[in-house]
Amino acid sequence: MLFGLFFVSLAALVRSAPASTDLSIGDIINGLGIGLVSSINVTITLDTLVTNLVDIAFTVKNPLPIELTLERVTSSAGINSTEYASFDHTFSDPLVVPIFGTADSDTIKNVLLTQGATASLAIIPLGFLDLLNTDVNLRAATIFGQLGIPLNVTGLKQKNVTTTYELSLGT
After folding, report:
1. Key word Signal present in the record (predicted)?
2. Based on the structure, what is the number of domains in the chain?
3. Residue 85: domain span
4. pLDDT tens digits, residue range 89-119?
5. What are 34-46's pLDDT values in tens digits?
6. Which of 6, 17, 91, 118 is the most exposed, having the fewest neighbouring CB atoms within 10 Å of its CB?
């Protein structure tokens, strides 16, 4: 009798639970505070002052027990909700991030400084950037970058990503 009452109560609870949520994978990652980018390196050239374009590279960390393969990243970065840089990059060779490991992107050229080069100089001493909105097309559970489950992870946000700046005076 007691078991029957418990079973009916449990069934009623399960039946009244919402069938779906409006949470995306990005919302879940943000909610858990799992930052996927461990560092950013920005290369500034003399041309940057005229073109408002820099080159970047970043390190991705994978906290999961499955391999991730990044195919495309669209991101905006800045400080205190002010966007200073944005880019949309498709990897010619997808970026494979091993199980519980890290991977360095190749250099991503022509990242736009949305506030202009002069205004962006003020953020260099801070040594960090916030990822304001990042969308990633990836494949999860790949095997050496092959196969996998395609996922579009949208709305990723991350605060205080360590950022270094390098001045390149060469051609």
Report:
1. yes
2. 1
3. 25-168
4. 999 999 999 999 999 999 999 999 999 999 9
5. 999 999 999 999 9
6. 17
Question: Which tokens sit at 112?
Answer: 């736009």
Token pair in block for residue 36: 């996927």
Buried b / exposed e over 118-157, threshold 16 CB at 10 Å, is: eebeebeeeeebbbbbbbbbbbbebeebeebeeeebeebe
